[in-house]
């Protein structure tokens, strides 16, 4: 697993939220719970709204900021890549940036592993999986993307 912070993530509050979120241990625990192979690789990029907007435009055709993007891999022993806007996580985290970062990294991981929330049943299943992986955190129900 690789977690990288973009040079644009410079504010002390952003760096402190990243440190407090403890994303590495969380992802290792989630990988074990989801039976992801110990040799499987996942790359997480912690960045800003500008980069997420560029990635969204390039890969989804939507030039708008978002909080997290997931890019599943078809390669053996590679889960995929996740990009998270730390800037957006702190803005929407209701005063708990580390919790929002944990939620977004789990959300991205689940997408990389094939979960989705396009319909009501999928959204409910992904919400349940997220709640199992973040048992000490309040997790709102996902809204179906197509509903």
Automatic annotation (TrEMBL):
One of its GO terms (cellular component) is cytoplasm. This is Endoribonuclease YbeY. It comes from the Bacteria. Keywords: Cytoplasm, Endonuclease, Hydrolase, Metal-binding, Nuclease, Ribosome biogenesis, rRNA processing, Zinc. The keyword Cytoplasm applies. Single strand-specific metallo-endoribonuclease involved in late-stage 70S ribosome quality control and in maturation of the 3' terminus of the 16S rRNA. GO terms for biological process: rRNA processing. InterPro entries: MetalPrtase_cat_dom_sf_prd, YbeY. GO terms for molecular function: metalloendopeptidase activity; RNA endonuclease activity; zinc ion binding. Belongs to the endoribonuclease YbeY family. Zn(2+) binds at residues 107, 111, 117. SUPFAM superfamilies: Metalloproteases ('zincins'), catalytic domain (SSF55486). PANTHER family: ENDORIBONUCLEASE YBEY, CHLOROPLASTIC. Its cofactor is Zn(2+). It is found in: Cytoplasm. Its EC number is 3.1.-.-.
């Amino acid at each position: 697993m690789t977690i990288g912070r973009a040079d644009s993530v410079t504010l002390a509050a952003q760096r402190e939220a990243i440190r407090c979120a403890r994303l590495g241990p969380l992802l290792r625990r989630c990988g074990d719970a989801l039976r992801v192979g110990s040799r499987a690789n996942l790359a997480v990029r912690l960045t800003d709204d500008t980069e997420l907007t560029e990635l969204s435009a390039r890969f989804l055709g939507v030039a708008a900021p978002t909080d997290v993007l997931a890019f599943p891999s078809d390669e053996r022993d590679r889960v995929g890549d996740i990009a998270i806007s730390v800037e957006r996580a702190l803005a929407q985290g209701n005063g708990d940036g580390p919790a929002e970062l944990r939620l977004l990294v789990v959300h991205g991981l689940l997408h990389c592993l094939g979960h989705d929330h396009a319909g009501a049943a999928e959204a409910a299943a992904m919400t349940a999986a997220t709640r199992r992986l973040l048992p000490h955190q309040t997790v709102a129900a996902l809204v179906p993307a197509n509903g």
